[in-house]
Amino acid sequence: MKKVLIVRLSSMGDIIFHIPLANLFKNQGYQVGWVVSEKGYELIKDNPCVDNVYFVPARKWKQRGWLHPKNFFEFISILKSIRKEKYDIAIDCQRMFKSMYWMLLSGAKRRIISQDTREYAQLGANEVIPKHLTNRDRHVLLNSYEFAKYLGLNTDEVKFTLPETSSDVKKYVDNLLEGIDNTKPLVVIAPATTRDLKHWDRDNWKKLVKGIQDDCTLIYTGVEADRELLSDIGANEHINLCGKTNLESLRELFSRVDLVISPDSGSAHLAWASGKPAVIAIFTCTPPKMYGPFGNDEKYIAINGGLPCQPCWDTKVCPLAGDKNKLCTKLPSADKIINIVKKNP
What we know:
By secondary structure, this protein is of the alpha/beta class.
């Protein structure tokens, strides 16, 4: 049996969209290993598409300081575990410096990367596939399949898997949703993400909520840092689960609702991954064709304002307006999303 090592440490959305690639290898006779850091570990650990998971505590290493001696010994321990498996192939799906040294030291005979790399990541590889994988007009999931095509695998199947949810988490979500009005469609509002320019305008969220609250049961989700945002757009008048869910319970929650509305964020990707709800993902500076929910165009909608400058990829400062205006965050209009919601559930 051949062994393949996937190196994709972060972010959560990209890890989600690379799970079908792992399933391709798994279902065609490969033993699959995966090098992953904090943001995606819960999705890869115990996932049936992966045989060996190598957890890299990058956040802890950064907090200690990259040159801390403990980091070095932990790095060596992880590396020994990887090399012990004697992988035939390693694939750099991150294509950055932080993946380069795992590739270079993995011990794999074939270390494969694509042409479009950053931060000298190509130094970790000994083979380059003759294609760029940053294609704005094609989904990142399909871009990742170029590795499988290069290796001669059949790429007709798109299979998504997640770890089994524990019984304790199911009971916890039961309690969170106790007494909820199930006579209306259950709609999750997940408005927050980590980058300022990926946020949809607050006034739009407020107008959206007013436009759909009579027809839907609204559930708000977010981490503790999102509490002010959620309160400002009406979470306290509905079901506010801010700070009450982790990755596993959020995934279980999504598997029970009808619709999730979110910007381009981990929540949108996780909602798609759960397989149950329709998803409306609102894009600003990033490309919807590349990062939107993959598959059924009627169930999964990725939408932006249609501006000539979109996508610009700049998630920190608008290259046209600096910190002012940010027109892409104000579009599409709330009315447009309201109309989509009223057709969806």
